[in-house]
């Protein structure tokens, strides 16, 4: 219960942050050359000034910036993200359509990175300065330095073009009308390469943090106590070191949530996944500022949500956290 | 001591340090033995190799450190040649260990009961329920209040003394033949220390356990030891029955260590001036933490209505245990912390009400010496620059300030030719002298010294205290001396104030307060000083 | 001196330094080896590497020399990476120092802003900035710098928080030092080493961010950038995959070099950690 109230308080504290972001980005977008109406007019192949004036009044763009901002925030409170002129639909509907692939991609990339980061981090720490450690650390460094979009392209060359094991892009096969298990498997096969691509750099980060954190915890006094009790090394790691060493990893998930969401922009573009990241890219190219602002809102919300979950997780792992404040 | 079986024999044991250490061997050719139902103390200062002895017996040496000749005979086996699996069976079951810092020695993420039960779990076939009941009875044995609650508690939910009790319960879970206690009371307050020492003594007598007790404090030795082994630089310099060594020390080093725990009796009183240089009245400092709009707020009354007077040229000791508010009070006096109420009159000016800018201009009048000789000097500045900093800030030309700083090195007993070194090239005692020189460079009238000798080895403590008393005479300093150590206070203070929970419970002339304490807390503190009786009987 | 010795004792750190020197050498020599505009038409399109001695690394879809683009691209990557890192670390140190030293409401406000920057995915913010201010070399560099400052700010703040209560800082205060003196002369020199080491990470990320932006064709199209080339090669990925592969190796090498040097510096400056 105390854990929940603690995490709840953190959640409440992030509301001002959310508004800060929205106000900041809203004002920033006012500086953009041309507004939504300009973009629409360009798409329609031009039009006269009267039509533009009419459209501006319709979209509430004819009033002063502070009033526009107030109107925007008021609509936001009612979860109305405005209308996308490019897609001809409410922004909320456009985003909602694009959300599932991104969520799936992030979850699978995060699980992949976390699991293998943990595993290899532990192995490296247990064999510190011997060859498994050197190998894992070296590969980790190379992964860290690899641009994800390039890795994605190379993976397509190898696995889709030459070996033809996995699809080169898309979220599912549109041609084959499949249902149930087959559809799940189809989507899964489409997500393998994107997840690897997105997760790669995080795998490198997690394994490095896990290794450092393990080594640090192994040096702590209570590990010596455990040895003095007569525990063997395996039990020392599983019973005493692992949970303590996990704490910085959990913190990192929260801190990296934004980076991961940002990374999905590139990965979704490489693999033509119809997700939020690709939508962000498209709306920049098409100057669909309403949609862009909506994406900013939703992605900030997602990051806050991930942080809420990691707060809960951290508090479950560390009994000291509920004692504070 | 009746003739009993020998439990552990250490025979000409040497331990080699890795290349690049300050000496080749941590321990050279050390021999000792411990019999059943006996407490043997290894005494020494930092670097004596005493803790390395404990780790060697447990075979818990750090990487790169190896035994280099000699034997450790335990129950007929040489532990030096035992396999890793054999050692694991012995650790925790036959030989158990208690460490210095009970907070870090316990896993913060697991409950006390779980961690004690783990010993039983790995060494016995007891069922979960049996383990649970054994844990409760162990916690009862070590007199933890409310054992069922303590078993479910996490380490941070217990006090330092309770944590150490839990550690002892864990160590004694399987009735080990030998208990190794590595400075188990050093991190504790003096009253808690007395309780833990009493507990170890009682449990040892009840269970006839052999105890190897490692300490730097001859007061503790007098309190608990049957036999003593004095170590210096990895070599045994003296050993024998505790009373013999304490009363008739042979080796110069032993004598020095014993001299560092003088009786808690004030030196002959000095005449005190009638003029007060510093007067505190009604000083209050309250901390508010957490809380949102007044809900769940935690209020700590760190200093509650303290009024004290420091006569010109006198030394006023403020003594108390951790959390008593003595350090907060010191920081209020020097205005590192802003007090909430009260006045601090220095030369007729109220420091409690001066603005930050005014304080900055008046810092020549009052200076501070800090506790930690490592943290209190900026590691990136040469010693002479550190000392010259204050005068430079106050407008002395740089060259002149540096020249004067070199002169101060002589005053505090440092070699002026070392002035261009960086802090890490000095020992702890020398650093504390640099800190003192830095404070004195501004020629203050009042010196606030916050535990200035607590982080130092006992023999170094004595030297720094002597320097402080010399300087007090020569420079006419008035000193506020904060300490948790009543022995230290007795040596240097003309007046003492005893603090508890932010309140001064008793104050007056040192001789009166320590000679005939009125407040029960003062009595308890004096009672708790380890080896207090020894000091009185041995010296006089 | 000890630090230099420790640095050169680590093979990984030395390798990083060599790689970095190679990349810097490429950037410097680009003007001499390939004096022509690297984006100008040079020959037949899509010549495979090593097939024609004139184009050692082949040509891209529109017949531009890949080797020339790689050499000139080194300039762009190092320039953008370096300047953006400078911007990020400068902002980060200022924000972190003020927040960590003063605490209270200053800390509260500055950390709220930092949190806002970290809550918004950095690449999304980068897209917004580029959408608003366009994608010239200057705007992209500044934009990458702006999205990268929160991490160094947090690091500086943490250092300041722990150093602020250190006794030597309190001693400085009791000597009568002003806040500016305490911040600049007492705390900053002690807080700086980890932040400077961290600059290696910031630079690595900055180079990756720019290349991703260029890959999406949202960076300056008028300069030879590795990311641009990878994006271009995507159109011919099925057969002429080398157009994308070669610049990717260049990015990987540069980022690896920067990370290795950063890590080597870290180990050299914090010898305690190295023993683990």
UniProtKB/TrEMBL annotation, chain A:
Keywords assigned by UniProt, alphabetized: Cell membrane, Membrane, Transmembrane, Transmembrane helix, Transport
Mind telling me which residue stretches traverse the membrane in this protein?
103-123, 135-163, 187-207, 245-271, 291-315
- Residues in domain ABC transmembrane type-1? 99-314
Q: How does it sit in the membrane?
A: Multi-pass membrane protein
Chief place where the protein resides: membrane
Q: Which domain of life is it from?
A: Bacteria
Q: Where is this gene product found? A: Cell membrane
Regarding protein family, the annotation reads: Belongs to the binding-protein-dependent transport system permease family.
Task: Show the PANTHER family listed in the entry.
Answer: ABC TRANSPORTER PERMEASE PROTEIN, DIPEPTIDE TRANSPORT SYSTEM PERMEASE PROTEIN DPPB-RELATED
Name recorded for this polypeptide: ABC transporter permease
Give the originating organism: Bradyrhizobium aeschynomenes
Q: What is the lineage of its organism?
A: Bacteria, Pseudomonadati, Pseudomonadota, Alphaproteobacteria, Hyphomicrobiales
TrEMBL record, chain C:
What InterPro entries is this protein classified in? BP-dependent_transpt_permease, MetI-like, MetI-like_sf, OppC_N
Task: Pinpoint the ABC transmembrane type-1 domain residues.
Answer: 74-262
Known CDD domains for this protein?
TM_PBP2
- The record lists the membrane-crossing segments as 12-34, 78-102, 123-147, 195-218, 239-261
Q: Name one Pfam family in it.
A: BPD_transp_1
Cellular localization per UniProt: Cell membrane
Specify the protein's topology with respect to the membrane: Multi-pass membrane protein
- Keywords, comma-separated and alphabetical: Cell membrane, Membrane, Peptide transport, Protein transport, Transmembrane, Transmembrane helix, Transport
Q: Major location, coarse class? A: membrane
Q: Which domain of life is it from?
A: Bacteria
Report the PANTHER family cross-referenced here. Answer: D,D-DIPEPTIDE TRANSPORT SYSTEM PERMEASE PROTEIN DDPC-RELATED (PTHR43386:SF1), OLIGOPEPTIDE TRANSPORT SYSTEM PERMEASE PROTEIN APPC (PTHR43386)
Q: Say which family it is in.
A: Belongs to the binding-protein-dependent transport system permease family.
**Name of the protein:** ABC transporter permease
């Amino acid at each position: 219960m105390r854990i929940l109230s603690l995490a709840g308080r953190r959640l409440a504290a992030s509301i001002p942050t959310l508004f800060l972001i929205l106000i900041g980005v809203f004002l920033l977008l006012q500086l953009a050359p041309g507004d939504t109406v300009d973009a629409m007019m360009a798409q329609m192949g031009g039009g006269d000034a009267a039509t533009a004036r009419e459209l501006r009044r319709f979209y509430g763009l004819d009033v002063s910036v502070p009033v526009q901002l107030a109107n925007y925030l008021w609509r936001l409170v009612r979860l109305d993200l405005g209308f996308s002129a490019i897609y001809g639909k409410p922004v909320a509907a456009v985003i909602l359509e694009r959300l599932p692939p991104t969520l799936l991609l992030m979850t699978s990339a995060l699980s992949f990175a976390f699991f293998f980061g943990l595993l290899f981090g532990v192995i490296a720490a247990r064999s510190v300065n011997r060859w498994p450690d050197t190998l894992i650390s070296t590969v980790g460094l190379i992964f860290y330095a690899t641009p994800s979009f390039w890795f994605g392209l190379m993976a397509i060359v190898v696995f889709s073009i030459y070996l033809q094991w996995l699809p080169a892009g898309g979220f599912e096969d549109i041609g084959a009308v499949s249902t149930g298990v087959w559809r799940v498997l189809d989507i899964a096969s489409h997500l393998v390469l994107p997840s690897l691509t997105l997760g790669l750099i995080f795998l490198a980060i997690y394994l490095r943090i896990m290794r450092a954190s393990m080594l640090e915890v192994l040096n702590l006094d209570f590990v010596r106590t455990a040895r003095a009790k007569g525990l063997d090394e395996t039990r020392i790691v599983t019973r005493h070191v692992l949970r303590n060493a996990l704490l910085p990893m959990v913190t990192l998930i929260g801190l990296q949530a934004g980076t991961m969401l940002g990374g999905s922009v590139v990965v979704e573009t490489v693999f033509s996944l119809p997700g939020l990241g690709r939508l962000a890219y498209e709306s920049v190219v098409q100057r669909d500022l309403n949609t862009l602002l909506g994406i900013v809102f939703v992605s900030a919300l997602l990051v806050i949500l991930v942080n809420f979950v990691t707060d809960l997780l951290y508090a479950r792992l560390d009994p000291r956290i509920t004692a504070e404040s | 001591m009746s003739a009993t079986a020998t439990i552990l024999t250490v025979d000409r044991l040497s331990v080699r340090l890795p290349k690049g250490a300050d000496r080749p061997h941590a321990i050279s050719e050390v021999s000792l033995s411990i019999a059943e139902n006996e407490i043997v103390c290894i005494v020494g200062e930092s670097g004596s190799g005493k803790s390395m002895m404990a780790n060697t017996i447990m075979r818990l040496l750090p990487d790169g450190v190896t035994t280099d000749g000699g034997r450790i005979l335990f129950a007929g086996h040489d532990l030096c040649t035992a396999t890793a699996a054999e050692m694991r069976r012995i650790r925790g079951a036959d030989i158990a260990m208690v460490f210095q810092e009970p907070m870090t020695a316990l896993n913060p993420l697991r409950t006390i009961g779980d961690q004690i039960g783990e010993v039983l779990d790995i060494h016995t076939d007891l069922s979960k329920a049996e383990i649970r009941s054994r844990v409760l009875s162990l916690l009862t044995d070590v007199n933890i209040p409310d054992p069922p609650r303590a078993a479910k508690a996490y380490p941070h939910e217990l006090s330092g003394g309770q944590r150490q009790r839990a550690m002892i319960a864990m160590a004694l879970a399987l009735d080990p033949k030998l208990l190794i206690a590595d400075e188990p009371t050093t991190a504790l307050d003096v009253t808690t220390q007395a309780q833990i020492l009493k507990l170890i003594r009682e449990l040892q007598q009840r269970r006839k356990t052999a105890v190897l007790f490692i300490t730097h404090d001859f007061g503790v030795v007098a309190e608990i030891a049957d036999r003593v082994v004095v170590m210096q630089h990895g070599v045994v310099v003296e050993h024998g029955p505790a009373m013999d060594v304490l009363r008739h020390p042979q080796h110069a080093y032993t004598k020095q260590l014993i001299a560092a725990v003088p009786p808690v009796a004030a030196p002959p009183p000095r005449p005190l001036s009638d003029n007060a240089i510093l007067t505190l009245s009604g000083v209050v400092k309250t901390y508010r933490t957490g809380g949102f709009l007044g809900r769940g707020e935690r209020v700590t009354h760190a200093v509650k209505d303290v009024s004290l007077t420091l006569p010109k040229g006198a030394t006023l000791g403020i003594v108390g245990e951790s959390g008593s508010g003595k350090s907060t009070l010191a920081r209020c006096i020097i205005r590192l912390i802003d007090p909430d109420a009260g006045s601090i009159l220095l030369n007729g000016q109220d420091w409690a009400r001066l603005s930050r800018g005014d304080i900055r201009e008046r810092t020549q009048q009052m200076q501070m010496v800090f506790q930690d000789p490592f943290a209190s000097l900026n590691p990136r500045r040469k010693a002479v620059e550190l000392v010259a900093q204050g005068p430079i800030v106050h407008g002395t030309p740089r060259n002149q300030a540096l020249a004067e700083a070199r002169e101060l090195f002589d005053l505090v007993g440092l070699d002026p030719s070392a002035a261009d070194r960086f802090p890490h090239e000095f020992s702890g005692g020398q650093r504390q002298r640099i800190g003192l020189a830095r404070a004195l460079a501004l020629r203050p009238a009042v010196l606030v010294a916050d535990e200035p000798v607590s982080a130092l080895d006992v023999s170094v403590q004595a030297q720094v205290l002597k320097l402080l008393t010399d300087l007090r005479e020569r420079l006419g300093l008035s000193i506020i001396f904060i300490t948790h150590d009543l022995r230290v206070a007795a040596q240097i203070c003309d007046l003492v104030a005893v603090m508890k929970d932010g309140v001064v419970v008793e104050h007056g002339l040192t001789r009166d307060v320590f000679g005939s304490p009125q407040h029960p807390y003062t009595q308890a503190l004096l009672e708790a000083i380890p080896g207090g009786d020894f000091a009185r009987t041995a010296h006089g | 001196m000890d630090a230099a010795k420790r640095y050169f004792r680590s093979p990984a750190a030395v390798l990083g330094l060599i790689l970095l020197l190679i990349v810097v050498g490429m950037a410097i020599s680009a003007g001499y080896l390939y004096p022509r505009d690297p984006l100008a038409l040079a020959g037949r399109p899509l010549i495979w590497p090593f097939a024609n001695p004139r184009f050692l690394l082949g040509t891209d879809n529109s017949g531009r020399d890949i080797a020339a683009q790689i050499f000139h691209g080194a300039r762009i990557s190092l320039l953008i990476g370096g300047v953006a890192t400078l911007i990020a670390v400068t902002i980060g140190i200022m924000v972190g120092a003020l927040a960590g030293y003063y605490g209270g409401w200053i800390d509260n406000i500055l950390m709220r802003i930092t949190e806002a920057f970290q809550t918004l995915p950095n690449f999304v913010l980068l897209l917004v900035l580029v959408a608003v201010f366009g994608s010239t070399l200057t705007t992209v560099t500044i934009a990458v710098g702006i999205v990268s400052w929160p991490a160094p700010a947090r690091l500086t703040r943490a250092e300041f928080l722990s150093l602020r209560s250190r006794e030597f800082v309190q001693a400085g205060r009791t000597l009568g030092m002003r806040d500016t003196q305490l911040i600049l002369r007492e705390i900053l020199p002690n807080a700086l080493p980890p932040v400077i080491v961290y600059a290696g990470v910031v630079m690595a990320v900055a180079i990756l961010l720019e290349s991703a932006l260029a890959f999406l064709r949202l960076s300056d199209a008028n300069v030879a950038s590795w990311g641009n080339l990878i994006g271009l090669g995507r159109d011919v990925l099925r057969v002429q995959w080398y157009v994308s592969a070669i610049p990717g190796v260049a990015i990987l090498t540069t980022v690896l070099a920067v990370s290795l040097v950063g890590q080597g510096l870290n180990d050299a400056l914090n010898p305690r950690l190295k023993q683990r």
